[in-house]
Request: fold
Amino acid sequence: MVNDVIREYEDHLKKAVEALRHQLATIRTGRASSALVEHLQVEAYGAPMPLNQLASITVPEARMLLIQPYDAAMIKTIEKAIQQSDLGINPGNDGRIIRLVIPQLTEERRREMVKVVRHRVEEVKVSVRNQRRDAIDQLKEMEHEKLISEDDLKRGQDRVQQATDRCVTELEQLGKDKEAEVMAV
Reply:
């Protein structure tokens, strides 16, 4: 029973790490990456849809993205969604293709991006701490209902804390790596 709780908790931790990886991939550095815009929500056909379902996204140069909508009528809508996003990039189009030129980041903008990275890492760490509390509460409830012994509770809590420590270390490393990438000129 304790193993089930811990296995479920470790699955949550893996998902948290993957979610942070995905979030950090969308933070722009000086280079173009399709991850910057592929999950950008665009109001299309009466519902919000990710951009990668409405257009092909290519990276022809280190600092340029090309977005080619599958439906040419969607160009204005996609352009509007990009302008309203927090990317800080002004799109240009020729009627068929939207071009996004990724400007060189200023020192001030790099520092803002580092703050965003730190904020996202902290959000995930809070989520991990909440999951830890829930897992420990489950173990305590099992001990209270006499399903496990007090020793099993203590060992389970220790294992939960060890898994939490490993996860937090990994999250912090992901954050540091992204900060270094953002600050690199």
Summary: The two ends are 51 Å apart (CA to CA).
